[in-house]
Give the backbone structure.
Amino acid sequence: MSASRYDCIVVGAGHNGLTCAAYLARAGRRVLVLEAAERPGGAAATREFAPGYRVSSCAHLLHLMPAWLLEELGLARHGLRMAAERMPTIALSPTGALRIPLDPDSAAQNLGDTDAHALHEYEARMRRLARALRPLLEAVPPRLGSRAWRDRLTLLGLAAKLRLLGRADLRELLRIAGMCVQDLLDEHFESPLLKGALAFDAVLGTNLGPRSPGSVFTLLYRLAAAGGAPASLAQPVGGLGALTEALARAANGAGAELRLGAPVARVIVSEDSAAGVVLESGERLEADCVVSSADPTTTFLRLLGAEHLDAGFVRRVTHLRTEGMTAKLHLALGRMPQFTALAGAVPTGRLVLAPSPGAVERAFNDAKYGKFSAAPLLEIIVPTAVDPGLAPAGQHVLSAVVQYAPYRVAGGWEGQREQFLDTILQTLEAHAPGLRESVRAAELLTPEDIEAEFRISGGNWHHAELALDQFFMVRPVPGAAQYRAPLKGLFLCGA
Amino acid sequence: MLTETEPHYRQPLLRTPFHERMRAFSQVDSFIPWSGYSTVDVFSTVEQEYFSIRNGASLYDLTPMVKYRITGPDATRFLDRLVTRSVAKLRPGRVAYALWCDDAGRLIDDGTVFRLAEQEYRLCTGERQLDWLLDSSVGFDVRVTEVTAEIAALALQGPCSCWVLKALGLEGIETLAPFEHRAFTLPDRVAAAGTAVMVSRTGFTGDLGYELWVDPGDAERLWDALMEAGRIRTIRPVGSRALNIARIEAGFLLPNVDFVSSAHTLRNGTARSPLELALGWCVDFGKGHFTGRRALLEEQGQPPRRRLAGLDVEGTKPAHNALLYADRNGRREIGSVTSAAWSPTCKRNIALAMVDTPYFETGRQVWADIYLNRELTWERRMVRARVVERPFFAPARRRAVPPGDF
């Protein structure tokens, strides 16, 4: 047994790092979690962005965290409560609204019978396909060309799931997997609002438009990760920071140690194995293994260093597409925003402002050529609608994910941030007249800001863009897809 | 060089600064392409040229050899991560034969590393690979520049080569040891007085010999001065075919003949590792990480499947491309010949071959299936061959300091 104080050092106390630490500690390992920031949370954190107003500063909805995981780690015991669960999506235009999933009582209100029927069939089929793909997400990706039983079993499991789909669904999966989402939606639906909202889900957080090949894949991934269930969105009391705080307590309770304000400078390599880390302060911490929840570019090129890796592997890491396309908007509001199309109803769901697939594609066109969208698309929540504690009494907070905002905007973000903020506020004003004058404070985080605040290369919350060519057995790069670095003792646990 | 007036497709091959001199000397006008340049295959007859390498002095135009200048604070660390042997141990003024591999430990190319100064190197390779060098430079403070056209190079090889350089007035050349390089200036008394020339005691013949590196503007003057100085030692320009016999005798590998770069192989199992090519002595596992190290360590832990071996083949017919068998009946195939030649100096029929385990062990007998074209009538001979140590020819003069006067 080694003389190291720790079996494992986990780099980063975001939800991934903490989950990993909690499980390692539960398995009896001596674990130390190192976090650069003064609070745990990473991209799942709650912070004050204006005096008295708090918001989930990066991710703002609990979406892809499996329910069994929350339960297994006993997060409810550690203080995690939900302010809203099974939140619906409400597609909004300045004049119309559409609730997805359809409300059985008012199904036909805003959607023709044909579309309503088509939506039920579409959702059922997509759910079946997503469930069949689920093993992809929960298994360690098999190594290609391997003869190990574990690799074979994973492939067999996937094959079995796919076989169980039956001929019709399997054909459909093969047909649509590489398709663009616009074509798929055009096959099924008429309503531009419905198609716009579904197209938005397909391209959210990606560098794709509805006409980009592979945009059905990202939609399937989203569904598969959500367990094939619709409306699995939830909002914790206290914002996403409450999730990571509960995770931190769970990890702590299992015996993991957490150190904040301890940025890691590099991984110590000894005899071709990771043997600990050196902090930016110069302090050396030894461990038998290092698990990094930082993005692969940061982990391999900055913390480890190209000199410890093969050149071909480094080439693949440098080719990884990591640039974010999404900004984050936080508004402190003097009163509850009034969306015309909601006719006075309190916005307790997830509001999507993406009026048609054409509008999504046009918004993408700007970004394709290095500009921010002139008519941006928004995913809005008003957290205070269900969790008033985040703002002073009677006041509100609006949180929005804004697409598209290229990481490398032409001319640089400096000086254009205000312009983009103004553009977004105009869009909001068109849907909720009077919102603008109720704004007490505003914060816009561009991908550049997200990169700096959350230490994510490129500011992409997926770390590396989710796309067919950067997925499963080739994610993040061929040769590191089993969460294992080419170097002994170094593992990945990030997005 | 490409000219402004001629489009590139009218003048597809570059000409080295020695081209006009070589053309004037060529009797059979046999030029072949090498790395985008036109070079000489044979000037007069292969035999005549071969014997000037082994018995006199020979000049071979090395200019098309691809050259990279590598500079910067991390130059040594960069090269140590690139190649399989230790570059940190290489002192300024020294040259090393080196190999580099891909991530899977398969050979990309071999070449020579010149340490010109503390933070400056020259890497000479058979083929261009700036992309691989640049990929390898990620994370290192280093600058890699191709300088092939900026440096003209001549190989002066043969027992009389030191004598010729002395006649040219290179003071102290006899103290230059193998794998050393040194800068010289030609003295006033010779025709090319004042020419700066870097000389390395390196070569591809396994004989006493040097390589000379000059500014292209001085190339013809140096050529003329060498031809003049070596006249009474019957100095002679030689082409690639004569050189090829010498390098087989010396046991050196030729890319695309004895191995194919893993950057070019398409089929599974056709790329070679340094261990398979019997170049394990060139792999330093103790120096820290280099590209391919993990793969090679794993390979080293397993019994070898095949290895490059030298063969002494019965008879006088070179075993070009021959398949090798364990038995005379040709039932069990165990490898194939990659290079073959009748060695005029050794008076042996020699070959380099990839041979399966365990037949590559020295002393093993194998059978070579040789095809002979006898006046357009093909004949097949199953010939006995024995695995022997390389090099086939290794005269003491190649390493002697000072070399004797021949």
About this structure: Chain A touches chain B through 16 residues (CB under 8 Å). Chain A has 14 helices and 18 strands. The domain at 6-84+238-321+463-492 of chain A is CATH 3.50.50.60 (FAD/NAD(P)-binding domain).
